[in-house]
Amino acid sequence: MKFDPAQLLHLVVGDPQADRVVPPSGFTAKLTLFSAGVMAFLAVFALALSLASGRLAARWSDELSRSATLRISAPSDQIAAQTAAALRVLDTTAGVASARGLTAEEQRALLEPWFGPDMPVDTLPIPQLIEIIEDDNGYDPQGLRHRLAAEVPGAVLDDHTRWRRPLVGAASRLKTLGWLSIGLIFAAMAAMITLAANAALAANAQVIQVLRLVGARDIYIARAFVRRFTLRALTGAFIGTTAGLVAVALLPSAQEAGGFLTGLGFAGVHWLWPLVIPPLAAVVAFVATRAAAQTTLKGLR
Amino acid sequence: MIELENVAYSYGGGELLSSITLALQPGSFHFLTGPSGAGKTTFLKLCYGALVPTSGHARLFGADVRGMSRDDIALARRRVGVVHQDVQFLDHLPVADNVALPLTVSGRSSIDEGANLKELLTWVGLTERADALPPELSGGERQRAALARAVIMSPDVILADEPTGNVDWEMSQRLLTLLIELNRMGKTIMIATHDLGLIRAAKSHVQARVLRISNRQLHLAGADL
């Protein structure tokens, strides 16, 4: 018995006659529905986590790798000369699209969050910052450092990789963890449905025996069980996914200074991703119940 | 239609049946008798593919049971009606649905067979009880419902295991009459029973052969019964 999408459709449409041969079961049905719902709810969050950290990693590595900063620390009378020298070097460096010294106002704005607006920043010996924007090919940071060391002794090149790498690494790790969680959630759902299906098959041993005796084929018997569990998982997962989506939508939206946590959620077409959860749950239930039914039936003649 | 050739069967320990050879001819009427535990039920199970012989060959409608797939067995069972001593039904469905179950599982619409079903229930005298649930039936009613279920597909062979085990004499006569009628319609009948009175009662109505299991062997019993 192989998996076949057409068969799955036929299963959902159903055969009311076949459905009646297995007695209705109230309690286990509700439990299956509940577990599928909870798992789908959790899957929505794991999915949100994966997609959000994926976005974050992409943004960080993209924005940060496009720019670098050159810091010039020198006695105040030499700063202007060294800045001019550094800009000359940068202008002739392959891979640098543009380089620009930050104005005093821009530098003050950068420092304001730390020192407050009233601090007389002008009187402090602040290094001059030069913003470097790379072109698509990028430049060779090592070569640039050597040239700067020779011509501009007070220059320190910060290409951001030092603190970018761990952040991007953490975000991608988080993304992997999210996908792993989704995998585990579906595996746990399969395990629970298998247990529930086995319980149902055991409870209906007499029904199965009678059906075999009167000439029912395995597929007919299996279908009666598989259909139920598939529909329950589908319904439960649908409810759970809807609840999860509502919960994610109600999270505070991402803000400019929001950092990571408030960014948890879906963006644009990513909202469509959770819709995959209910059908996937149905497929998992279908395969799990079918395997359980086959194992049970093989034990009978 | 059902052939056993040098068949032996053992349950783990010793052999219960050995070197049994028998071919059921169409339209024949057999009684199977022997002491309790002699292997009557096992013999019947070999006849409808519920057990595979430990050695020898059992053939159902020409196919060796050993080589049949599970679906083949299911299809063969549609041509063999079985009545168990402890009849089992789907307890949540009314009698009429239980009797029609073989039609349901074989995908034949019960609507077309509705008249057929009604006739059958009348024949076994269960018209009044058609909507009852199986646990509400008496022993005799259960046996008759089982017989109706066994014949609804119009099988070639009917195997009955102690069909009169749990019912009184009058009811056993009614069941016997039903089975004799089926035999007159051309069905092959095999009844396992240790009720010699039943066998004697049948002999005046039908050409029945009596098989006896003793010492693991199948014997054709003499005319002295």
Written overview of the protein:
The complex is a heterodimer of chains A (301) and B (225). Chain A is of the alpha+beta class and 301 residues long. Chain A folds into two domains: 5-60 and 168-298, no CATH class; 74-153, no CATH class. Chain A has helices at residues 5-13, 16-20, 27-65, 79-91, 104-115, 141-151, 161-203, 205-213, 218-249, 277-298; strands at 67-72, 96-101, 128-134, 155-158. Chain A has ten helices and four strands, in the order αααβαβαβαβαααα. The radius of gyration of chain A is 31 Å and the shape is rod-shaped. Chain B is α/β, with parallel strands linked by helices and 225 residues long. Chain B has a domain at 1-79 and 155-165 and 188-194 and 207-225: Rossmann fold, CATH 3.40.50.300. Helix content of chain B is 32%, strand content 25%. Chain B contains eight helices and ten strands. Chain B has helices at 40-47, 70-77, 95-99, 101-105, 114-123, 139-151, 169-184, 196-203, and strands at 2-10, 15-24, 29-33, 55-60, 63-64, 80-83, 157-161, 188-192, 208-214, 217-220. In chain B, the strands form two sheets. Chain B has a six-stranded mixed beta sheet, sandwiched between helices. In chain B, strands 2-1-4-5 form a four-stranded antiparallel beta sheet, with helices on one face. In chain B, strand 9 (208-214) and strand 10 (217-220) form a beta hairpin. The radius of gyration of chain B is 17 Å and the shape is globular. The two termini of chain B are 27 Å apart. The mean pLDDT of chain B is 87. The chains are: A alpha+beta (301), B alpha/beta (225). Chain A: The chain crosses the membrane at residues 31-52, 177-201, 233-251, 271-293. Chain A: This is Cell division protein FtsX. Chain A: Keywords: Cell cycle, Cell division, Membrane, Transmembrane, Transmembrane helix. Chain A: It comes from Marimonas arenosa. Chain B: Keywords: ATP-binding, Nucleotide-binding.
